[in-house]
Design brief:
mainly beta; Immunoglobulin-like; four-stranded antiparallel beta sheet; three-stranded antiparallel beta sheet; 1 helix; 7 strands
């Protein structure tokens, strides 16, 4: 009996732990960003997939509503309220582009993506 007692306690704990995971629902989505860009002349076409944030102010299904702040070479270029947009008027050469997802009060969600674009001469 003494040899089986620790085994039974371990078995009961294991069954309790495993059965408890059946009712765990995933929490809200962890915000993230995936960016695809394409260069066309002096324009950069950008498509973003942002999880956990909506760009529609009327969307009540999401708790986080925001916009994307576009930085080019360390200077704020524009703000956009959509996941697909075009940045125009690049000069030839290399440029660092940063996309930062913020709320409507310009407070960062901690979601950002940086990449380089090379505009041909």
């Amino acid at each position: 009996m003494k040899n089986r007692f620790p085994f039974l306690i371990l078995l009961v704990l294991l069954i309790g732990i495993l059965s408890g995971f059946n009712h765990v629902l995933p929490s809200t989505e962890f915000p993230s960003i995936l960016v695809h860009h394409q260069i066309k002349g002096e324009q950069v076409l950008i498509e973003c997939i942002v999880t956990g944030v909506s760009f529609r102010e009327t969307d009540q299904s999401k708790h986080r509503i925001g916009k994307i702040v576009v930085w080019v070479d360390g200077k704020k270029k524009t703000e956009v309220n959509s996941a697909a947009f075009i940045i125009s008027d690049f000069s030839p050469g290399s440029h660092k582009v940063k996309l930062e997802v913020v709320n409507l009060k310009n407070e960062s969600y901690g979601i950002a993506k940086e990449f380089m674009v090379n505009i041909p001469r």
